[in-house]
Amino acid sequence: MKEQGLKGSYGFRFQEHPYPFQVNLWNIGWEVVKSPTYSWNGQTRMDREKIVFQYTLAGQGALVYEEKTYSLGKGQAFFVSIPSNHHYFYPKEATTDWEFIYITLEGKEALSIHDHMVEKYGPILVIEKEAEPIRLLLRILSETASGEITNSYSGSQRAYEFLMTLFHFLAVPPKKKLKEPITQAITYMKDHMSDQFDLATVAHHVGLSKYYFIKQFKHELNITPMQYVSILRIKKAAYLLSKTDLTVAEVAHQVGIDDANYFTKLFKKTVGVSASKFRKNEDVHLIDYIITEWE
């Protein structure tokens, strides 16, 4: 559905209650306001256990949040809970219409997630329209307008998806291209995973001092070089345990760890079970590969 056909407000009032969902849709819409009569006070409205995410597409709005006033322009969103000490409105001095899309969610878990995000990132978020949370919000609005969300199951699914997409967007910035020395270092670590090497050797290989290399690596990947190597080794070890008949000690040696006790502790810390239980598929269900944030 084309964007111009999405304007309007929709309320979800599903009558069946098959399960006490902790997050669900309540309202969604695309509105254009031009009058100071548009005003919502978070302490006087009747709604309870709701959160509102409202994203400005054009024009200007305003939010008073805990006695502090914020001007809302294109590309800015506010995120508030109901009830709480806030007030959002169309300013009397505004000279252009305020155009925005919004979603209101209900449920205790929605409030809990909201409180965590606001504590960490604040009530005002700057997000490009092409970013995944806004694209998803427009998709949910389109699905609503076309009648695709017809029950509390699909409503809760979309509500969770939106919250987790927003959370992920804020917590994990889009991947950027790594600087060449860091890319070279990662290649070296992967190629020499089975060897006993130190960080000074890796730093020398990429033409950096050890100190600067460690600092740059952590800045780029948000993890230290040795933590990264440890993850590489445990992922390779998991593969060898599931696909070969090598003993645990032999697997440890194959991934560059000769201290069997250290290997056992590191494997359990990373995977959640011991290497022997992993091989026997005890406490895990037929896992062949370990997935982490890093390759």
TrEMBL record:
<keyword id="KW-0805">Transcription regulation</keyword>
<protein>
    <recommendedName>
        <fullName>HTH araC/xylS-type domain-containing protein</fullName>
    </recommendedName>
</protein>
<dbReference type="InterPro" id="IPR018062">
    <property type="entry name" value="HTH_AraC-typ_CS"/>
</dbReference>
<dbReference type="Pfam" id="PF12833">
    <property type="entry name" value="HTH_18"/>
</dbReference>
<dbReference type="InterPro" id="IPR020449">
    <property type="entry name" value="Tscrpt_reg_AraC-type_HTH"/>
</dbReference>
<dbReference type="InterPro" id="IPR018060">
    <property type="entry name" value="HTH_AraC"/>
</dbReference>
<dbReference type="InterPro" id="IPR003313">
    <property type="entry name" value="AraC-bd"/>
</dbReference>
<dbReference type="InterPro" id="IPR037923">
    <property type="entry name" value="HTH-like"/>
</dbReference>
<keyword id="KW-0238">DNA-binding</keyword>
<dbReference type="InterPro" id="IPR009057">
    <property type="entry name" value="Homeodomain-like_sf"/>
</dbReference>
<dbReference type="GO" id="GO:0043565">
    <property type="term" value="F:sequence-specific DNA binding"/>
</dbReference>
<dbReference type="Pfam" id="PF02311">
    <property type="entry name" value="AraC_binding"/>
</dbReference>
<feature type="domain" description="HTH araC/xylS-type">
    <location>
        <begin position="183"/>
        <end position="281"/>
    </location>
</feature>
<dbReference type="GO" id="GO:0003700">
    <property type="term" value="F:DNA-binding transcription factor activity"/>
</dbReference>
<keyword id="KW-0804">Transcription</keyword>
